[in-house]
Write a structure and sequence with these properties.
By secondary structure, the chain is mainly alpha-helical. It has a single domain, classed as MFS general substrate transporter like domains (Growth Hormone, Chain: A, Up-down Bundle), CATH 1.20.1250. The protein starts with a helix and ends in an 8-residue tail after the last helix.
């Protein structure tokens, strides 16, 4: 296969491949998606003071997003698999950008909960729809690193959100955090509609050589007429993916939503210091996700079994993050705490070569539906982890219990993943 791919690659004309444009828009979509998701976490210390929110109320507000996010995962994946991802993603980004823009007008608690749920409804469509488009645009031998590169848009978005949001709060006031990023999303949606098609063969300017290159290593991904639900739920590989995603995302969402508050309230960093130091864990995630993606594709090309690659990188995620959480709970040093959080989230990012690409391994034709289904369940930690964290801190004053719980959930995920996960295609 390597020789054939090299021949096709050599035949490609010079110029910018159209799939690179698609991948860059995937990346920037993830970037904006996470800026809009976490900006309220960044300004939460300010809002807690201004509106008198206690940790329990704050956790409820942070969790509200995930209620909406859960509702649209499966519809987003099915619509993209059935009708194509272009219109699905474009509408979703425009929707959530409007919700972002309206957030400052929701000063009363019920309105704030409603707008956060609305934001989640728009964002929930997007990951499964992008997975569906990846299955149709990206040849199999490029998929792990493409998924890893796309997910680093998440980390870049978070890294930008922290200092930019703090700067905007300081110079313009907290409402402008939401006004600015809402407008940015609308501009992205315009570019998306102008530059992208749902499938490569529909693109008006793609070259014949690039189209042949894509099709050479692209599993059959015909539009989905009927979804084999019973087959999914009778498969141990599907359950391993679903549980692995749930357990990974518990640690991710717990740290994502509470990290700014933890650094300020529990570790004594100022708001300005938090805006800088909170970027470090996501910088580590950017490096480890891309490194894992490239290394995984290289290992697979050299003949390492895909299942071994997926199990290895996901195990690094579970074991590494759990160990760092246990070390974090045992240190009194704010600087060691920052180091352990950085290493722990860096370990979480290696899941880009584990569960995050596994939907495309076991069922490429149903990638959108599978991602929608597992991310629906994977959204439950987004609802529970922020709220449970808030209540634990509110009523016990203990962050250590929060970290022990997350480490235990990772241990469960590791056992299930090692026993039942596979990198081979299961669903035709």
């Amino acid at each position: 296969m390597a020789t054939e791919l090299g021949t096709i690659a050599a035949a490609r004309p010079t110029g910018w491949p159209r799939r690179f444009t698609v991948v860059l828009l995937f990346f920037t979509c993830a970037l904006i998606l996470y800026i809009d998701r976490v900006n309220i976490s960044v300004v939460a210390p300010v809002l807690m003071t201004e509106f008198g929110w206690d940790p329990a109320v704050t956790g409820t507000i942070l969790s509200a997003f995930f209620v909406g996010y859960l509702l649209t995962q499966l519809p987003g994946g099915w619509l993209a698999d059935r009708f194509g991802g272009k219109s699905v993603v474009g509408f979703a980004v425009a929707w959530w950008s409007l919700a972002t823009f309206l957030t400052p007008f929701a000063s009363a608690l019920p309105l704030m909960l409603a707008v956060r749920i609305g934001l989640g409804i728009g964002e929930g469509v997007t990951p499964p729809a992008l997975h569906s488009m990846t299955a149709r645009w990206i040849p199999a031998h490029e998929r792990t690193r493409v998924i890893a590169f796309d997910v680093t848009g998440v980390y870049v978005g978070i890294m930008l959100a922290f200092p930019l949001s703090v700067w905007i709060v300081t110079h313009w006031g907290w409402p402008w955090v939401f006004y600015s990023f809402g407008v940015l999303g609308v501009l992205w949606a315009v570019l998306w509609y102008l530059l992208v098609t749902s499938r490569p063969e529909e693109h008006p300017t793609i070259s014949a050589a690039e189209l042949a290159y894509i099709r050479h290593d692209l599993p059959e991904v015909a539009p989905v007429e009927a979804v084999p639900w019973r087959l999914f739920f009778s498969s141990s590989a599907f359950w391993a993916l679903l549980i692995g995603q749930f357990c990974t995302l518990w640690t991710w969402y717990m740290l994502l939503t509470w990290l700014p508050i933890y650094l300020v309230k529990a570790r004594g960093f100022s708001l300005e210091e938090m805006g800088v130091y909170a970027m470090l864990p996501y910088g580590a995630m950017l490096l480890t996700a891309n490194s894992a993606g490239w290394l995984a594709d290289r290992m697979i090309r050299r003949g390492v079994p895909i299942t071994l690659v997926r199990k290895g990188f996901q195990s690094l995620c579970f074991v590494g993050s759990a160990l760092c959480l246990l070390l974090l709970s045992a240190t009194a040093s704010p600087w060691l705490a920052l180091l352990y959080i950085t290493l722990g989230l860096g370990a979480v990012a290696t899941s880009a070569a584990g569960f995050l690409v596994n939907h495309l391994d076991i069922g490429p034709r149903y990638a959108g539906v599978l991602m929608g289904l597992t991310n629906t369940i994977g959204t439950i930690p987004g609802i529970l982890a922020p709220a449970i964290t808030g209540f634990i801190v509110q009523f016990t004053g203990s962050w250590e219990l929060v970290f022990y719980l997350a480490a235990g959930i990772s241990a469960v995920g590791e056992v299930i993943w090692l026993l039942f996960a596979t990198g081979e295609q299961v669903f035709e």
